[in-house]
Amino acid sequence: TRQTGLTALDYGFVNTAATRSAITFIDGDQGILRYRGYPIEQLAKNSTYLEVAWLLIYGELPTADQLADFDERIRHHTLLHEDLKRFFSALPHTAHPMSVLSSAVSALSTYYENESDPHNPEHIELNTVRMLAKLPVIAAYAHKKSIGQAFLYPDNSLSFVDNFLKLNFGVMSEPYEVNPVMSRALERLLILHEDHEQNASTSTVRLVGSTGANQFSSISAGINALYGPLHGGANEAVLEMLGRIRESGESVQRFVERVKNKEDGVKLMGFGHRVYKNYDPRAKLVKESADEVLAELGISDPLLDLAKELEEIALNDDYFRERRLYPNVDFYTGVIYKAMGFPTRMFTVLFAIGRLPGWLAQWREAGTDTHTKIGRPQQLYTGAVRRDYPGTV
Ligand code: SDX
Asked: What ipTM score was computed for the predicted complex, to two decimals?
């Protein structure tokens, strides 16, 4: 390239290393997202987190019996080993819940080292259920730790989502009644996050899985990749951005100008996407939910109005239109999570719980097929040409 100015593409090399997958389809120009062929709009409004998890992992919607058995197995794997609960006390209460989550998942694998052969179908099934059952509990413990409250035990009489809400918002000394509005909204938000083809964290899970690493280690790596503010961490960054605008008293227009001038590298968080060059279909559904949930909870949040004003200005501004920048899934989710009572630092943890079924499905597709080769992303070398060490010639 340095001598000729040509690149591999000029020689007709096409990136043949594109990942082949049958799980999720995205058309970024049309704003289409389908899980195993089913449109996200239909699944988000009519299905459940566990039914969609089964669809992603096994390729078809489950029968009623299959779903009931899946649900039952998950309920009976929600308990963490008592030693693992003590793991949390080793971390500072100021620890970010995403750090706690990835560390605890990695530690989880130490309890199942004799049942984690990535080519053993029984181990794969067992650890798929263990991950789905225990990640929400670990997440709730990370939340409770961050607010200095006692951990609760899972309540297996509750649904997956309701159990998670109780683990987060229940307290020992009081009965806890699940708010159906929160339950329905969280179910829909989790479904919207369940998979998204080869995003950074899923690619990480696949790459780690392709080395023969077990599900726990692969998922822990995916959690760390998701943590970044350009990826899953954006939902937390959006709320911080909206809060800063509001507290500073800066006009939305002035903030948008700073974004356009790239002052101090400021970005409109929750906007833009590597694939969607149109409205992210998930963002549309989340925005609808935001209005419904806040109205039903009787909450009016000025940050939601601020987000809508930002969207309105950006969608009508050439800078964003020319770069095809639209709201993505992270733009409105934080307002709903905040209305539910989750602290901002838990938002990406909620994204991770949503994404877990997709990670597990993609790990199985990539890492456990005994014919799958180890992942090895290609590079185009742009470094120094051959030269000799001084004095050797
Ligand atoms: C997720 O991949 C997935 O599917 C991810 C995800 C999933 O479900 O797994 O959908 C979840 O991660 C959503 C994205 C969340 N991240 C954010 O909201 C962070 C803010 N967005 C950006 O940082 C950015 O849009 C990315 C990282 C999401 C995408 O970056 P791209 O496609 O590589 O775009 P780019 O960085 O090449 O930018 C192109 C232009 C640049 O301007 P110019 O150099 O042409 O002048 O657009 C500008 C950028 O500066 N730009 C933005 C912007 N995003 C891009 N300008 C202001 N604000 C933004 N948010």
From this structure: 0.96
